[in-house]
Design brief:
The complex is a heterotrimer of chains A (about 625), B (about 350) and C (about 325). Chain B is built from 13 helices and 3 strands; from the N terminus they run ααααβββααααααααα. Chain B is mostly helical and about 350 residues long. In chain B, a hairpin with a 2-residue loop joins strand 2 (about 100-105) and strand 3. Chain C has 2 domains: about 5-225, P-loop containing nucleotide triphosphate hydrolases (Rossmann fold); about 250-260 and about 270-330, no CATH class. Chain C has helices at about 45-55, 80-90, 100-105, 110-120, 125-140, 145-150, 160-170, 190-205, 215-220, 240-245, 250-255, 320-330; strands at about 5-15, 20-30, 35-40, 65, 70, 75, 95, 175-180, 210-215, 225-230, 235-240, 310, 315. In chain C, the strands form 2 sheets. In chain C, strands 7-8-9-3-10-11-13-12 form an 8-stranded mixed β-sheet, sandwiched between helices. In chain C, strands 1, 2, 4, 5 and 6 form a 5-stranded antiparallel β-sheet that branches. In chain C, helix 4 (about 110-120) packs across helix 5, helix 5 (about 125-140) packs across helix 7 (about 160-170) and helix 7 (about 160-170) runs parallel beside helix 8 (about 190-205). At the A-B interface, strand 13, strand 15, strand 16, helix 10 and helix 14 of A face helix 1, helix 4, strand 3, helix 6 and helix 7 of B.
Chain lengths: ~625, ~350, ~325
C-alpha cells in the first residue's frame, strides 16, 4: 500500500501532530466557511432572519397583546380583518361571577384576565312568522333568556334544521351552573354531573354521568332516581368510619318522572342501581335504549325496518316456525335533548313560543407552562386590558385569527422540532450502527429499512395513533400525554431516510484514508468515532434535519387535517387549515380564514426549505472554499 | 431481467406477508372490536356476528382463514345475517344460539333466514379480501372495486400534471438559467414544495368557486371534475420534479460529452433531446416511485376536500372503525401499488441507463 | 496550398464577478493540410481554451472570443451564425477530447453517437450511416466493429473509447483535427498505439492536426511545428525538432529541464520551474514569465515582448532570445 509505506517513514508522534493540526484547521474552517457561504446566499440568510423573528414571536406569544386564541368574540359570523385596538370586551362582566362558588376555569384567557370566561350558547328554535322571508330576532325570547339566565345575551340567527323555522342563538358568558352540577360540599368532594334526557316512545329516559374529582373515597354502590323536584343520586362510599351513604339531590324539574336508564360513574357505565359484588366488580351494564333495525323474512318476503319499535311480540304460529310480529311505529326523529339546567329552565319558560334545540359550551382547558403563565402575567402588567382587535379577522367560531395563527405556530413548531429530534435519534443510531458493523448485519438492517419504505407509512401512522388512542387513559396515568405519543409516532416514521443517509456517510468515511491513518497511529475506536466520523456526519445530518423539519410540519398539518393530530382546544396550523376549509361554503367566502393561515404556514415552510437548501450548499464539502 | 423480477417478487412476497401478518395481529391486539358502537348489541346478535366473521375462533385460525386459500370454517358459510333487533323487549329475553341459524329466544326456537353473505374472511392468497365488517352488505373487493378506479383516475391526472408541469418548468428553468424566468420558476417550485396540498386546494376552490367559476370545485364524474383536484394533488410533486429536472439537466449539460456533441456540430435542440434529457431526467424517473406513493397519500386529503368518493376515505375510516378486513384490504392494496410501481420505476431506470445492472439492485 | 486554419490575434477572456480572466492573449497560428502543429504548455496556459475557440465552443457568457482573423477551411468563424457554426463543426473541423471516459455519452450506444454525425452532416440514412460507422471503427483498429457498434461506452476499455472518439472525429473527413491531450488519460502502452493511429490516419486522410498537450515526448514524436504557450500567449514557435533541441525562450528551457530523463544520473533532482503561473485575472504589465525568469531585466516588466523571428522559421517572445541563441550555439 503506497500510502502506508510513505506514511510509515514519519514517526507516530509527528503524524499525530499533523493530524491534530489538520483537524483543528478543519474544525474551525468548516463552520466558518459554511457560515460565510450561508451569508452570501441572500435567500438563505433572509430565511434565517425571518425564521428567527418568527420563532421569537411564536415563543413570546403570551407576552403579546393578542386576543385569546380560544374565544374572543361572541360573534358567530366570521368578521373580516379590521384594525381596532380594543379593550377586552369581557371586562364588564367581572363582578358578575355566578354565585355558585366555582373557581374560574384555568385557561389561556383566564390567566390573563378572568373576564375571558367561556361561552354558553342556548339555541332556541322558533317558527318563522308567515309571510316573512328572513328570520328576525324575537325580542321576547331574548328577554326571557336574559331573565332566566340572569345574564346579558348576544343574539345570532341562523336557519333552522326544519323547514319554516329558524334558530335564535343566545351567547352567554358561561357559568358553572349552566350544567347540572353539584357541589360535593358535605364530603369535601368535588365533581360534575351531566344529564341527558332522551324522549323515547314511551316517555322520557334519563342518563346521568357523574365525574368525581380524583381522590375521593371508593364508591361501593350507586343509585340514581328521579323525584318530583329532579334527580337524586345516592352513593354508598367507603368512609373513614365505614360504609356511609351520601345523598345528592339535584333540582332539575325537566327530568322529573323520567326513567333513569343508566348512570355513568367516573367513566364506568352502570345500571341505575348498582352495587359492587364481593370481588369489587360492578355488574354488567344493561343494554341501552336504541333504535332497532330488523330484517326478517315473513311469509317469504324480506322486510327491513328501521324504526323505534313500540312493541315486539313473538308469535308461535306452528310448532317450529316462529315469526316476529311487530307493531312498529315509525316515530319521527324526536331527539329533543335537554342537556342541562339552563337549557331546560329556558325550555320550560318558553312554553309554546319555541323550544330549546341545543345548548353548547365552549370549553376545554389549555394548561400553560409556568413560563407561559408568567409571561401572561407580565403581559397584563404591560398592556393591561388592551388587546388587538381582529387584525386578521375571526373564524367561524368568532375566535381571533391572528391569535390562533401565533398560538398555533407554537404547537406546530414544537411538534416538528421534537418529532425531528426523535427521528434523528432513531435514524442516526440505526444508520451509524449498520454502517459501522458492515457485512451481514448492515445488509439485514438496511433491508429492513427498504421493506419499511415500501409500506405505505400513512397507514402505519393512522394505525399507531388509533392504537394508542385506545390506551390513552393508561398512558396518561403513566404521564405520557397524547402529544408525546404524537411526536414519537411521527419520529418513528421519519427515521428511515435519516438512517440511510447516515449509514451511507459512515460507510464512505470508514474507509477513507484519514480514518485509516488515525487507526494506524493507534487511535481508539471511540476516539475515531468522536474525532473523525461525528464531525463529518454532522454536516449531512444538519442539512437533512433542516429539510425534515418542514416535512414534519407539513405532516402534522396533514394528520390534524384528517383528525388524527392535535386536538382542540389546542390549535395547530393543521387545525387552522381544517377551519379554513370548513369556512369555505357555497354562499359566502371568508377569504381571510383561508388566506392568512395559508400565508403563515407557506412562508415558514418556504423559509425552512430555502434555509435547508442554503445549508446544504454551504455545508457541501465539494463546494468548500468556492462561492 | 427475469432474475431481477424473480428476486423482486420474492421480496415483495416477504414484504406483503410481513405487512399482512403484523397488521393482522396488531389490529386484533388492540382493545375494542368492529361492533363496539355507541350502543351495545344484543348478546345473541353479537355472538352471531362474531360467528359470522369467525371472531370467536382463536387468532391463529382466523389468521390462516384470512390468508387463505384453505377454508378453515366447519360450517362453510356464516350463520346469521341482518339481525340486529335490539329492542327493549328483545333485550330482556334470554337468547342462545342453538346452532347455525337456529336461535333460542325466550321459550321459542327461532330460525333466522336471510340472504347468505359472502364467504367469511376470504383468503388473501386467492385474491378475496373478505367481507367488510362495517358495510355489511359489501365485500372489501366490492368496495375497492368501486372506489379504486376513481382514485386511480385522480392519481393519474395528478401524476400527469406533476410530470408535464414539472418537466416543462424544470427544463425551461435549466435552459434559461440565471434569467428572471429561471428565478420565478424556481421560486414557484420552492413554494410548491413548501405548501401543503390542502392549502393549494383551498386557494383553488376560492378562486374557481367565487372569482371565476369555470370549473366545478366538488364532485366526480366528468373530466372537468378532475382538473382542480388533480392539479392540487399534483402541484407539490410538479414542483419537486421541476427542481430535480433542473438540477439534473444542468449537471448533464455541464458534462464533457455534451461538449463532444457540440463539437460534432449537432443542433442545440438535438443535443437537448438526445444527449441531455435522457441523463438529466434520470433523477426524475427514480423519484416517480416515491412520488406515486406520495400522491396516494395526498389523495386522502384531496378526496375529502373535493368530495370525491375514492379509496382515500376508506383508508382512514376503516382504521378508526375497526373494520379489520377493509383496513387490511386497503393496506394490502396500497402496498401492492407502491411496491409494483417502485419495481416498474426501477425497470424503466435500468432501461434508460445501460450502466446499471439489474442484478445489482 | 491554402492554409486550412488561420488564426490571428485570438483573444479569449472570461468576464466573471472577480474581474476579467484573460485565458488567451493574442494567439496566432496557421495550419497547412496534412501538417501537425503541436501546442505545449502547462495547465492553465490557455491551450485548451484556444482549441475550444477554434470550434466556437467557448461558452458565452462568460467567455468572449475576439480575433483579427479566425478562419477554418476558408470560412470566417466569427462571421458565422449558430447554424453555420454547427455545420462547420464535425465536418470541417473536429475535436478529440482529453478524457474518453467522460467525453462519450454513457447512455447512448456507440452506433448512435457515430451515426448522428453522418446523419447531420452528410444526410445519410441510419442504415448507410451504420455501415460507414462500422468502417470507421475498423479503420481505427477496433476488432469486430459490428458488435462494438451496439456497445455502450462503459463496456469499452479506455483505449478503445479513445479510438471511438478518433473514429467519430474523422467520420466526415474534416480538414482540421484538434486533439486536446488525446493520450493523457490513457496508459502508456495505449498512448503509443493511439498516437501511432493518429499519425497513420492523418497521413491517409491528409488532415491537418492541431495537437495540444503538456507532454513534450508526445510532441517530439508527432509534431512538425511547435507552439509553446504560457499564460495565454505563444512564447516560442518553430519546427518541433529545433525548438526541443535548442529552445529560445527561458520558459521552454524550463519545461525541457523539468522532464525526467531515463538516461539521466540516478537520484538527480528534476529542475522544476520555481514559482507558479500568474493569475490570469491580473496579468503583469510586462512579460508574463518575468517573475519566474532567471534572465529578467528591467525591460521585461515594461511591456509584453512581441513574438519576433529570431532565426529562419523560429520565433521567440523573449527579449534575451539573442543571448539564448548564442549560448545554445545554434548557427544563425
Amino acid at each position: 500500500m503506497a500510502t502506508t509505506a510513505r506514511q510509515s517513514k514519519r514517526s507516530p508522534a509527528e503524524l499525530q501532530a499533523l493530524l491534530r493540526e489538520a483537524r483543528a484547521q478543519r474544525g474551525t474552517s468548516l463552520g466558518r466557511d459554511a457560515w460565510r457561504r450561508l451569508r452570501r446566499n441572500r435567500g438563505a440568510f433572509y430565511a434565517l432572519v425571518f425564521l428567527g423573528l418568527f420563532l421569537a414571536v411564536s415563543w413570546l406569544a403570551p407576552l403579546l397583546p393578542l386576543a385569546s386564541p380560544m374565544a374572543l368574540d361572541l360573534a358567530v359570523e366570521p368578521q373580516p380583518p379590521a384594525w381596532p385596538l380594543t379593550v377586552n370586551p369581557r371586562r364588564s362582566l367581572a363582578g358578575e361571577r355566578p354565585p355558585f362558588g366555582a373557581a374560574p376555569t384555568l385557561s389561556v384567557g383566564a390567566l390573563a384576565d378572568d373576564g375571558w370566561a367561556h361561552r354558553t350558547y342556548v339555541d332556541v328554535e322558533l317558527e318563522t312568522p308567515l309571510g316573512q322571508l328572513e328570520p328576525t330576532e324575537n325580542p321576547m325570547v331574548r328577554a326571557l333568556v336574559t331573565q332566566t339566565a340572569e345574564r346579558k345575551a348576544t343574539v345570532y340567527l341562523r336557519a333552522g334544521d326544519r323547514p319554516g323555522t329558524f334558530v335564535q342563538r343566545h351567547a352567554l358568558p358561561q357559568w358553572d351552573s349552566d350544567r347540572a352540577r353539584i357541589d360535593w360540599q358535605p364530603s369535601g368532594e368535588r365533581g360534575a354531573v351531566e344529564g341527558t334526557l332522551v324522549r323515547g316512545v314511551d316517555g322520557l329516559y334519563l342518563k346521568l354521568a357523574l365525574q368525581r374529582a380524583p381522590g375521593g373515597p371508593t364508591v361501593l354502590a350507586a343509585k340514581a332516581r328521579t323525584a318530583v323536584e329532579g334527580v337524586e343520586v345516592e352513593l354508598v362510599v367507603e368512609g373513614e368510619t365505614g360504609r356511609e351513604t351520601r345523598r345528592y339531590p339535584m333540582p332539575w324539574r325537566a327530568a322529573a318522572g323520567a326513567r333513569v336508564v343508566g348512570l355513568q360513574l367516573d367513566g364506568v357505565r352502570l345500571p341505575a342501581e348498582a352495587e359492587r359484588d364481593a370481588a369489587g366488580q360492578w355488574p354488567a351494564m344493561p343494554d341501552e335504549l336504541g333504535e332497532a333495525r330488523l330484517a326478517l323474512e315473513i311469509a317469504g318476503r324480506s322486510i327491513q325496518l328501521s324504526a323505534d319499535l313500540e312493541s315486539v311480540k313473538l308469535v308461535d304460529t306452528a310448532g317450529e316456525r316462529v315469526a316476529l310480529e311487530t307493531r312498529a311505529r315509525v316515530v319521527p326523529e324526536l331527539r329533543a335533548v335537554v342537556h342541562d339546567d339552563l337549557g331546560s329552565r329556558i325550555d320550560r319558560r318558553l312554553t309554546d313560543i319555541g323550544r330549546v334545540v341545543g345548548l353548547e359550551h365552549t370549553d376545554g382547558i389549555w394548561e400553560l407552562s409556568a413560563l407561559d403563565a408568567g409571561l401572561l402575567h407580565l403581559r397584563t402588567r404591560i398592556f393591561g386590558l388592551w388587546q388587538t382587535g381582529p387584525l386578521l379577522g375571526t373564524d367561524a367560531k368568532g375566535r381571533d385569527l391572528l391569535a390562533r395563527i401565533v398560538w398555533g405556530s407554537r404547537i406546530s413548531i414544537q411538534v416538528s422540532l421534537v418529532a425531528t429530534l426523535c427521528s434523528l435519534a432513531i435514524g442516526v443510531t440505526w444508520g451509524a450502527f449498520a454502517g459501522l458493523m458492515g457485512g451481514r448485519i448492515d445488509n439485514l438492517m438496511m433491508r429492513i429499512v427498504d421493506v419499511l419504505y415500501s409500506v405505505p407509512f400513512i397507514f402505519v401512522v393512522i394505525f399507531l395513533i388509533t392504537l394508542l388512542n385506545e390506551y390513552r387513559v393508561e398512558l396518561a396515568d403513566r404521564g405520557i400525554g397524547y402529544m408525546t405519543v404524537f411526536y414519537v409516532v411521527i419520529g418513528a416514521i421519519y427515521w428511515l431516510t435519516m438512517a440511510r443517509v447516515v449509514r451511507g456517510q459512515v460507510l464512505s468515511l470508514k474507509n477513507q484514508e484519514f480514518v485509516e491513518a488515525a487507526r494506524m497511529i493507534g487511535a481508539s475506536t471511540p476516539r475515531i468515532l468522536l474525532a473523525h466520523l461525528v464531525p463529518n456526519v454532522l454536516s449531512v445530518v444538519i442539512v437533512y434535519l433542516t429539510l425534515t423539519v418542514p416535512a414534519v410540519m407539513l405532516f402534522e398539518a396533514f394528520l390534524s387535517f384528517l383528525g388524527l393530530g392535535v386536538e382542540p382546544p389546542r390549535v395547530s396550523w393543521g387545525l387552522l387549515a381544517v377551519d379554513a376549509t370548513d369556512s369555505i361554503s357555497a354562499v359566502v367566502i371568508y377569504w381571510w380564514a383561508v388566506v392568512f393561515p395559508s400565508l403563515a404556514m407557506g412562508s415558514v415552510l418556504l423559509a425552512l426549505n430555502v434555509l435547508g437548501d442554503g445549508l446544504r450548499d454551504a455545508l457541501d464539502p465539494n463546494l468548500r472554499g468556492k462561492d | 431481467m427475469i432474475r431481477f423480477l424473480a428476486r423482486r417478487l420474492l421480496w415483495f412476497a416477504i414484504t406483503l406477508l410481513g405487512v399482512v401478518t403484523i397488521s393482522f395481529f396488531l389490529m386484533r391486539a388492540v382493545r375494542g372490536g368492529p361492533f363496539d358502537g355507541e350502543r351495545r348489541l344484543h348478546p345473541a346478535i353479537e355472538a352471531n356476528l362474531a360467528a359470522r366473521y369467525h371472531l370467536d375462533w382463536p387468532l391463529w385460525r382466523q389468521y390462516l382463514q384470512y390468508l387463505g386459500p384453505f377454508d378453515w370454517s366447519d360450517q362453510g358459510i356464516g350463520a346469521l345475517l341482518h339481525v340486529e333487533a335490539d329492542t327493549d323487549a328483545l333485550q330482556r329475553l334470554p337468547a342462545d344460539r342453538v346452532e347455525g341459524r337456529t336461535f333460542r329466544v325466550g321459550s321459542s326456537v327461532v330460525t333466522w333466514t336471510g340472504e347468505l353473505g359472502p364467504t367469511p374472511l376470504g383468503g388473501v392468497l386467492t385474491g378475496d379480501l373478505g367481507p367488510s365488517f362495517k358495510y355489511r352488505d359489501f365485500t372489501v373487493n366490492d368496495i375497492i372495486g368501486q372506489s379504486l378506479p376513481i382514485s386511480v383516475a385522480l392519481g393519474s391526472v395528478a401524476l400527469l400534471f406533476a410530470l408535464t408541469l414539472g418537466l416543462v418548468a424544470g427544463i425551461g428553468s435549466a435552459l434559461w438559467r440565471g434569467t428572471n424566468i429561471d428565478l420565478s420558476l424556481r421560486l414557484a417550485a420552492t413554494a410548491g414544495i413548501a405548501l401543503p396540498n390542502f392549502v393549494i386546494a383551498g386557494f383553488l376552490i376560492i378562486l374557481f368557486a367565487f372569482l371565476m367559476p369555470l370549473l366545478p370545485v366538488a364532485g366526480w364524474g366528468s373530466p372537468r371534475h378532475m382538473v382542480l383536484p388533480g392539479f392540487a394533488l399534483g402541484a407539490p410533486f410538479a414542483a419537486y420534479i421541476a427542481r430535480l429536472a433542473r438540477t439534473g439537466l444542468l449537471e448533464v449539460l455541464s458534462k464533457d460529452h455534451i461538449r463532444t456533441a457540440r463539437a460534432k456540430g449537432l443542433s442545440e435542440w438535438l443535443i437537448l433531446v438526445r444527449h441531455a434529457l435522457k441523463g438529466g431526467l434520470l433523477p426524475v424517473v427514480s423519484y416517480l416511485g416515491p412520488a406515486t406513493a406520495g400522491i396516494l397519500t395526498g389523495s386522502l386529503v384531496i378526496e375529502r376536500l373535493f368530495g370525491i368518493p375514492g379509496t382515500g376515505s376508506h383508508f382512514v375510516n376503516s382504521a378508526l372503525n375497526r373494520d379489520y378486513t377493509l383496513s387490511m384490504g386497503v393496506t394490502i392494496l396500497y402496498t401492492v401499488l407502491v411496491y409494483s410501481l417502485n419495481t416498474l420505476v426501477d425497470l424503466v431506470y435500468t432501461l434508460l441507463d445501460p450502466r446499471i445492472e439489474l442484478e445489482e439492485s | 496550398m491554402a492554409a486550412v486554419l488561420e488564426v490571428e490575434d485570438l483573444v479569449v477572456r472570461f468576464e466573471t464577478h472577480q474581474g476579467t480572466v484573460r485565458a488567451v492573449n493574442g494567439l496566432s497560428m496557421s495550419l497547412q493540410p496534412g501538417e501537425t502543429l503541436g501546442v505545449v504548455g502547462e495547465s492553465g496556459s490557455g491551450k485548451s481554451v484556444a482549441s475550444l475557440a477554434l470550434l466556437g465552443l467557448v461558452p458565452n457568457p462568460p467567455g468572449v472570443v475576439e480575433a483579427k482573423r479566425l478562419k477554418v477551411a476558408g470560412q470566417d468563424l466569427l462571421g458565422l451564425d449558430r447554424r453555420g457554426l454547427q455545420q462547420l463543426r464535425g465536418k470541417e473541423i473536429a475535436m478529440i477530447f482529453q478524457d474518453p471516459m467522460t467525453s462519450l455519452n454513457p447512455l447512448l450506444t456507440v452506433e448512435r453517437q457515430l451515426t448522428e454525425v453522418l446523419e447531420r452532416h452528410e444526410g445519410l440514412t441510419r442504415r448507410e450511416a451504420r455501415k460507414r460507422a462500422a468502417a470507421a471503427l475498423s479503420d481505427v483498429g477496433i476488432p469486430a466493429p459490428e458488435t462494438r457498434l451496439d456497445s455502450y461506452p462503459h463496456q469499452l476499455s479506455g483505449g478503445m473509447r479513445q479510438r471511438v472518439m478518433i473514429a467519430m472525429a474523422l467520420l466526415c473527413n474534416p480538414k482540421v483535427l484538434v486533439a486536446d491531450e488525446p493520450t493523457t488519460a490513457l496508459d502508456v502502452t495505449i498512448q503509443a498505439q493511439v498516437l501511432e493511429l493518429l499519425k497513420d490516419l492523418q497521413r491517409r486522410h491528409g488532415t491537418a492536426l492541431l495537437l495540444i498537450t503538456h507532454d513534450l515526448g508526445v510532441v517530439a514524436g508527432m509534431a512538425d511545428r511547435l507552439h509553446v504557450m504560457y499564460a495565454g500567449r505563444v512564447v516560442e514557435a518553430g519546427p518541433a525538432a529545433d525548438v526541443l533541441t535548442s529552445p529560445l525562450h527561458p520558459y521552454t528551457q524550463g519545461l525541457l529541464r523539468s522532464v525526467p530523463r531515463i538516461r539521466g544520473p540516478l537520484g538527480a533532482r528534476l529542475d522544476a520551474i520555481d514559482g507558479s503561473p500568474p493569475d490570469l485575472a491580473a496579468l503583469p504589465a510586462g512579460c508574463s514569465f518575468a517573475a519566474r525568469c532567471g534572465l529578467r531585466t528591467d525591460a521585461c516588466t515594461k511591456s509584453p515582448p512581441p513574438l519576433v523571428p529570431v532565426l529562419a522559421g523560429r520565433r521567440s517572445a523573449c527579449l534575451e532570445a539573442e543571448a539564448l541563441l548564442l549560448r545554445s550555439g545554434v548557427k544563425a
